[in-house]
Amino acid sequence: MSKVSDCVISCSRLSKFYEQGSTKLAVLSDINLRVGMGEKIAIVGTSGSGKTTLLNLLGGLDLPSSGTVTVAGKNLNEINESDRGFLRNKYLGFVFQFHHLLGEFTALENVTMPLLISGSDVREAEVSSELMLKRVGLLNRISHKPSELSGGERQRVAIARALVNEPKCVLLDEPTGNLDKYTAVEIQQLLADLNESLHTSFIMVTHDDSMANTMSRKLVLEGGILHE
User: Fold this and answer.
1) Quick one: which of 122, 148, 195, 223 could link to 144 by a disulfide (CB 3.0–4.6 Å)?
2) Where are the alpha helices (DSSP H) in the chain?
3) Record: fold of 4-100+161-227
């Protein structure tokens, strides 16, 4: 368990439900989680168990029905959408099952986007992005557009984009779900190396037991409740 001073993201008594007429459909119930610096956490569970919903709440992409999410000491419930966007850009990175790269831009241009949004100088952003693409093994592909890259290469670009702003925590939603087994193992090793070298925390939801077992903590989401 992480110390308060080391905590990069946490939630307390987090719940999410949806109303269907007079009925409330509970997706998440009373979840507590604290993630320390450099921790690697896997969240596993069956399809429809609420894993992606939990990840969206932790990243401020959605708001809870009750409870709190705290990022960098800020309660996401108590700030407006503009400030939540600032926190996401500065402190969090996102990697999804589908890479969500912008097809009309090169790998380098896609990776520079978070830096430009945060107000970085264009040239400085390009230098930082080149270094991050080198870290993920794609320095020779920086001028290629997504359609010219393999599935594994596109996901490496997405990982570089998530890490280029040096976030405290990266949220990963089935990052190897659309990859073949060999490429998935490569991405798994890449994430482990980046975690060790950058000390960035990872929270990953996955169906892949082999990947979940490489993380420092493995949590199970079942019946809307998170089990250690």
Assistant:
1) 148
2) 51-58, 81-91, 107-117, 122-135, 151-163, 181-198, 209-212
3) Rossmann fold (3.40.50)
